[in-house]
Amino acid sequence: MATLRGMQQPELSKKLFKIIKSENHAIGAYETASRERIAIASQLSDWGEATGDDSISDVSDKLGVLLSELGEQEDVFSQNLEDYRTVLKQIRNTESSVQPSRDHKGKIADEIAKLKYKEPQSTKIVQLEQELVRAEAQNLVAEAQLTNITRQKLKEAYDLHFAATIERAEKQIMLARHGRRLLNLLDDTPVVPGDTRPAFEHAQQARQVLNDAEEDLREWTPNLEPISSAATEMSGNLMPAQAGTAATSVSGKSEEPEGPVGEATTTGQLEQNPSRDVSGSSTVVQPNYETSS
Hints:
This protein has five helices and no strands. The chain is mainly α.
């Protein structure tokens, strides 16, 4: 079914459609990695307990907690990537809606060329040329709207993507550093046969490592350079505000899209607004097929 949807995509939107589908597979891989990491963390804790060594049992149990949190970060990352992917869909939908305008203009131009070759005296040529003028005017508006939404949403999408990547990286580094602290609590001094290992003396310190990790995650805040955007100057018809009233075709038909335009992104701070809605793309003409995932 996904392949069939890809074949039905207008030529203009096929490449971005492929990117969006590939990102869907990548997101699925991160979700799988999250589940696997959490399962492995549990297995490590079970193994440590089975060794019968109190020191290994305590350390491995707490390593399992940190590793499980690393797995949770993969899941958060995949959710944030889905937000980025949703913004890319807005560009794809706009591309799809502009394709008919291009095709219509090209079809009229082809008909004129054929008539001039076969019936150069035909009165229909003048009629078609007038129709071509209108089609070119409408397409000119559509192309401007496409480039406006493409630039705005490309910046917004990858602002989300890179902000999510930075969040994941910084939190995983944080957790890994605490994991290394735990390893330093385990005494690996060799013993000779018959010697007894001393009791684990760092249980309190090991618990403190987990407390520190939890506090660090709770206090983490993004420190990102804002992505600048002038798209706030764009009016509801995807044109500059000062040119908004001119965005009509020669026939007088408004080219204003039916849907609302998404606002420009600010700093990409996903942590502060994880559930924000990035749907609601604006297109020149609504596509006549269902939006694919």
